[in-house]
Write a structure and sequence with these properties.
The protein is α+β, with helices and mostly antiparallel strands. The chain has a single domain (2-137), classed as Rossmann fold (3-Layer(aba) Sandwich), CATH 3.40.50. It has five helices and four strands. A two-stranded antiparallel sheet has the order 1-4. A two-stranded parallel ribbon has the order 2-3. Helix 1 packs across helix 5. Pfam families: Transketolase_C.
Length: 138
């Protein structure tokens, strides 16, 4: 939500979608927002790539020609404060903002103006809690 708030302050309007579960994903909603914003999705999660939400989203949207870029944990888990860990693993709001602003080559222009989509999917696996959201930036 920090990334969404900051992007709103900078004039990039956001739509937050809560997928609630990995299976089934709300394919129609993800595809609709991805197509409106140039056909690219960025997923960010506190999970390894294998079996994560990035892989699930990529499989869900592949037949629609939507590209998926995934930021996820690629290192051994460590103990620490949540904000420190998100930054350490490159999945913090700061990292999302940097990627969404500095990778114009990654996103394709929409038909009437350049838009971006930033999908932020955060999965928490504490006490069997699994929660997530997708942030679509238009």
């Amino acid at each position: 939500m920090k990334a969404a708030d900051q992007l709103e302050k900078e004039g990039m309007h956001c739509c937050v979608i809560d997928p609630f579960t990995i299976k089934p994903l709300d394919e129609a909603t993800i595809v609709k927002h991805a197509q409106r914003t140039g056909g690219t999705v960025l997923t960010v999660e506190d999970h390894y790539p294998a079996g994560g939400i990035g892989v699930a989203v990529a499989a869900c949207v592949a037949k629609h020609g939507i590209r998926v870029k995934s930021l996820c944990v690629n290192d051994v888990p460590r103990s620490g404060k949540p904000d420190e860990l998100l930054d350490m693993f490159g999945i913090s709001a700061r990292r999302m903002l940097k990627l969404s602003k500095n990778t114009e080559h990654f996103f394709r222009p929409a038909d009437f103006e350049f838009k971006r989509i930033l999908c932020r999917i955060l999965t928490l696996h504490t006490a069997e809690l699994c929660r997530g959201f997708i942030l679509a930036v238009t």
